[in-house]
Known about the structure:
Blueprint: H1 3-22, H2 30-37, H3 42-50, H4 54-61, H5 66-75, H6 78-87, H7 90-99, H8 102-110, H9 114-122, H10 126-136, E1 154-155, H11 160-170, E2 179-183, E3 189-194, H12 195-199, E4 217-218, H13 223-233, E5 237-241, E6 247-252, H14 253-271, H15 286-313, H16 315-320, H17 328-351, H18 360-387, H19 392-422, H20 427-455
Parallel strand pairs: 1-2, 4-5
Antiparallel strand pairs: 2-3, 5-6
Pfam families: CBS (PF00571), MgtE (PF01769), MgtE_N (PF03448)
Subunit structure: Homodimer.
Organism: Ornithinimicrobium avium
Amino acid sequence: MSRARRTREQQQEQTRQAVREARLRRAGDAERLRAILHGADLPLVVDELERMNTRQRATAFRMLPRDSSVRALQMLEPAVQAELVEALPDAQARLLVAELDPDDRARLLDGLPMDLSERLLRSLTPQEWEATAAVLSHRPETVGRWSTPRLVSVSQEATVADALRAVRADTGDAETVYAVPVVDAEHRVVGVVSLRRLLATDPGRPVHEVMREPISVYASDDQEDAARVVRDHGALAVPVLDDDHRLVGMFTVDDAMRVLQIEEAEDEARAVGRERLDRPYLTTSFLALARGRITWLLILIVAATLTVNVLDHFEDQLQQVVSLALFIPLLIGTGGNIGAQAASTMIRALAIDDVRPGDVFRVMVKELTTGLTLGVALAVFAYLPAQFFTESRVALVISLSLVVVCGLAATAGGVIPLVARRLGVDPAVVSAPFITTFVDATGLVVYFLIAGAVLGL
């Protein structure tokens, strides 16, 4: 291990230890801890804060320098933010909330009790209250809730020198100045110019000669769709417009990346049949964990009744060849795994716009071919071992069933997310329960039909 790496790890451990000690609030150590935490690596500080209970977190948080405390608050999970602000003295809470950007402040106030939220709003200056109210006027989970009204914009009639003066005048208030919207007389965005271009251009040139076509989003757009626009275009910030195409804010790259992180965590959770945790695991109660899983478990139990009905229908075949029952878990388990693989691949492809709902027939053919290929490979692999447990004809039933079930499962796993997207439903929400139900039920029907044909039942 290099000396630089050892030094960095020692500094990280010192920061973690300082945060852990800060929760105890030892009077004699206060200055030493503040000195360590001053300029400390904030992600490490936040990681330790999120591992504490509410009282310890509030105690340790009060030891942070003021500038660090604001940034640390912004980095905490929303539910943890709300708990922390509730646990802090009113005076400190008001100071912290006043320091936040309007979009960050609006999301925090959303998670607070109504009375506390109103008290904090009343403590703001008229300008800050107006900016926060503007963000809160947008619907939840739209990009409007993530847009900052603190921005620099310039008229299309302005010169480069005028634009640079505007940037310098508002640098302290604006959340970003790296992309400057250019607007017309009605405050509609006609272009965007980067700060770099302004600095490299003759100050006397008109702005409309150096601006480029704007990449913009509407405040009513879904937050995930808007975040993908920022990511796909490699933009540092994009203008946010209202329904009349007027500029209302800017959506920055750091907020876009956070939206994508939230959405991906939500999709991953729903793909395995649970809800996304809104706080770190160690600070989530067992009741919250159970609540996030119980709904999906109930849905899957209801769906499983279809499988029970299929078994009941083919009860006579099972009684005639009891050994068929031995391989039911293998069959539906393999089908479920293949369906899950196809679904996760498709959900990811949809997320990055690699496929679209209109590609459903191409996806169907590709996944059917892939599933049949896997089925043949697994059937060959399973045929010989199956003969150790049962007769060769039953082994043949198992192999043939694997081929068909794998083809059906892969096709369902690829198509169901596309159909869900076409219907305006989150693919991650429906994929897990629908694929499980489809594969279990159809897999058993296929199995018993093939058994009836091969064994003459």
